[in-house]
Amino acid sequence: MSQVICIGEVLFDLISDEPGVPLESVNAWTPYPGGAPANVACALSKLGTETAFIGGIGQDAMGADLSETLRSHHLNLSGLQLIPSYPTRSVLVTRSAQGDRSFAAFGGDRSTDSFADTQLSADNLPKDLFKPDSYLVTGTLGLAAPDSAGAIHYAIDLTRQQGGTIVVDLNWRPVFWPEPDFAKPLISDLLTKTDIFKLTDEEAQLFFQTEDPQEIYDRHPHLKAVLLTQGEKGCKYWIAGNIGELPAFKMDVEDTTGAGDAFLAGFLHQYVQTPDSFKDPTQAQTAIRFASAAGALTTLKRGAIAALPTPEEIAAFLHFQAIG
């Protein structure tokens, strides 16, 4: 099985303890380890896929806690960089009455470019981490700062040199961008280097004016897969010429934070084992069903990393769905 490398932000989600209450009225928050690339890395490792994480943390208590969380998930952390003069990022996450989350602001009322994850250094990437046929997973938030953007693009170059695969989750979060209007051309450029592309229905409408994975593939025919999640409506996909959709599992949702990351990890855990087999429509649908179960189970608890399911939990859930 190929190694997966996840690069980007690791942070604390400060999740509102009061669903349905607006940001200015929330009185209590609970911190949970998160950050999309870190979530995917932990989910993959929990599923049994060898995974490394590259990112920047501050030399502070939050950074130490996050480092320990990543270590407890048995990740290769040779690419974790300690940034002494910048704090570890925390983000305030409000929740609707239905559990849907919104990234509202940053802890300490800081600007988005003042955190350690923005200072990730390309010069300090461990080049020996990039092996033949590795998978590199990233989002787009690191593109919002020059240093972290340079590190991501250098990691892409190193992966390409080894014949690896680039996986991108669009993960649009305007609050992370000092100038959101600058984001689209940077994201469009990243897409030209992407093999597997994951996005939500809202992101598809914003960036492509369609929710059809086939149309997105037609505009970017170098892609190997387009995965489009739609929350409670389920998901659609284009994988190696196979087109399909799957309704969402009915869940008693507590918090949707990290559900999309668990979905992506669930898909990649299947894909990296036998990528050529995904030309078979049955194999593609089986992987999407596994991914959807991983995402659905993550919504049952608060937080992202804390809520990630085990392979046994996914298998039991799918078995119940099959006989139920």
Description:
The protein is an alpha/beta fold and 324 residues long. The chain has a single domain, classed as 3-Layer(aba) Sandwich (UDP-N-acetylmuramoyl-L-alanine:D-glutamate ligase). The protein has 9 helices and 13 strands. The chain has a 9-stranded mixed sheet with strand order 5-4-1-8-9-10-11-12-13, sandwiched between helices. Strand 12 and strand 13 form a beta hairpin. Helix 7 packs antiparallel against helix 8 and helix 8 crosses helix 9. The radius of gyration is 18 Å and the shape is globular. The two termini are 33 Å apart. The mean pLDDT is 94.
Give the helix proportion (percent range): 25-40%
What sequence of helices (H) and strands (E) makes up the elements?
Answer: EEEHEHEEEEHEHEHHEEEHHH
Derived from helix and strand composition plus strand pairing, the structural class reads: alpha/beta
The radius of gyration computed from the alpha-carbon positions, rounded to a whole number of angstroms, is 18 Å
Q: Average pLDDT, to the nearest integer?
A: 94
Main β-sheet description: 9 strands, mixed
Measured by DSSP, the beta-strand proportion falls in: 15-25%
Order of strands in the sheet with most strands:
5-4-1-8-9-10-11-12-13
CATH fold field value: UDP-N-acetylmuramoyl-L-alanine:D-glutamate ligase
Number of helices in the DSSP assignment: 9
Tell me the CATH architecture.
Answer: 3-Layer(aba) Sandwich
Q: Outline of this structure?
A:
This protein is an alpha/beta fold and 324 residues long.
